[in-house]
Amino acid sequence: MGNIKDLDYGYGRSISSSFPALMRKVFVWMTLALIITGFTAYGISQSPGIISAIATNRILFWGLLLAEIGLVVWLSAGINRLSVMGATLVFILYSVLNGVTMSFIFLAYTMTSITSVFFITAGTFGAMAVYGYVTKTDLTSMGKLLLMALIGLIIATIVNMFLHYSLLTMICSYAGVLIFTGLTAYDTQKIKMMLADADEYSEVGQKIAILGALSLYLDFINLFLYLLRIFGRRE
Questions:
Q1: Helix, strand or coil, per DSSP, at residue 16
Q2: Residue 51's pLDDT is what?
């Protein structure tokens, strides 16, 4: 472990000298993953052949979605069996696959609205991440409620895939914004607590940082997509 400084962040625990570096890595890896996803999505959207193949082949489309879910589960559940390099590669691969499936937003929405919503998302995400980082209020109870609400949102979304109710779609979109706005603060605080006494050069600290980056990446992406459904202008 690094040397422990006499600093407290509201829970009666001190933080290690490695903590700032590990928190920076969380946000650097998250940002790099977003960049990879963005460039992949835009690149795929400019390739009519690839877009057509994905859009017309339902097995391929659902295969990509299932592969994404599988990678998240693999990274989250199997982090202890993966090396730091292996976990990083899985995270990068997930970012690429997510970019492939997100490429359709460039066909469905105008570039202007995508850009505007991205900056709205970045501002909202940044504000909630800062709040989660600096607040001395324990957000654990709020996090549990948000996770239960997320389960309800997933169920409602799946049901609406068959019902196609526009009102339910809009309700789910607003609920998604609220849920992932709150989860951003909760996840930031949780990552902060997990990294408080971690060693920057240990495998454990590095892996926690990767999982933290994945959590915040998912919060950002989902917040962006739900805001895009509300504010995005269709092509």
A1: strand
A2: 92
Buried b (16+ CB within 10 A) or exposed e, 75-107: beeebeebebeebbebbebbbbbbbbbbbbbbe
Q: What would you measure as the largest C-alpha separation in the chain, in angstroms?
A: 59
CA distance linking residue 199 with residue 180, whole number of Å: 29
Q: State both tokens at 150.
A: 């997320």
Q: Which of 81, 164, 144 is nearest to 156 (CA)?
A: 164
Computed over every residue of the chain, the mean pLDDT equals 90
pTM confidence score: 0.90
Q: What is the pLDDT, as a whole number, of residue 14?
A: 55
Give which of 217, 5, 4, 198 is closest to 84, Cα–Cα. Answer: 198
Q: How many CB atoms lie within 10 A of CB 228?
A: 21
For residues 16 and 193, give the distance between their C-alpha atoms in angstroms, rounded to a whole number.
11
| CA separation for the pair 19, 58 (Å, rounded) | 45
Orientation angle between helical segments 19-45 and 48-56, nearest 10 degrees: 90
Say how many CA atoms lie within 13 Å of 225 toward its Cβ: 19
Q: What is the share, in percent, of the chain residues with pLDDT greater than 70? A: 93
